[in-house]
Design goal:
By secondary structure, the chain is α/β, with parallel strands linked by helices. It contains six helices and 13 strands. The longest helix is centred in the last third of the chain and has 20 residues.
Length: 238
Amino acid sequence: MKKPLIGIVTKYYRDESFYNWTNQEISNDLRYALCKNGARVVGILPQCSLHYFQELDEHDTTSITDLEKEELIELVDMCDGIVLQGGMYSSYYEEFIANYCFEKGKPILGICAGFNCMIRALGGITKLLEDTSRHKRPDLKYAHKCNIVDKNSTFYNIVKKDNFEVNSIHTYIADTLPKQLKIVAMSDDGQVEVIEGKSDGFYLGIKYHPELLFEEDKIQNDIFVSFIEKCREEQEKK
């Protein structure tokens, strides 16, 4: 059997320092983490005629035509699982994909900004953190502890520890969770670090960046191993 096929949803980025070129990007660290753990990886691009997207990590009210939805769904359906990656900006097509995966029960993993999109896709709210001194720390390998608050969760069954150290590179946090999601883990200063769907399936959002730790941190590597295994189960259904 072939390796499971995982789609990483591309992120919009405009490079002001280089002629304002615009890009649809994929994190190479994330691609590497998935490939190293036995997945095939493809990029999922927005199928719309827009050139520019919003330059905020907030809910985007841009509309999607029925044809654009159909074309995007075709790409998502080709995959056994989906990853929403981190980044500076978030766009409407990411929320659409998160909502679609939730409704169809397709495995999806959201990291940092992807975590935000998963919350907003189901009607929740994220907000800008007032004091980022503990959470916007790209200079630290480990910034704070992540504490499990729900041991009856998919995530706890993966990590199998009550608490562990994580990195932290973000400015937006969960404000109001939709009823379909539950809090699984929190930082030691009370911010939501991990959320997942209450129903069956793999709908997992992580606020920190396991793809930057997985090679030397078994707990973080096990997240990718478990996600890929869930995608393999999805592959076997086809």
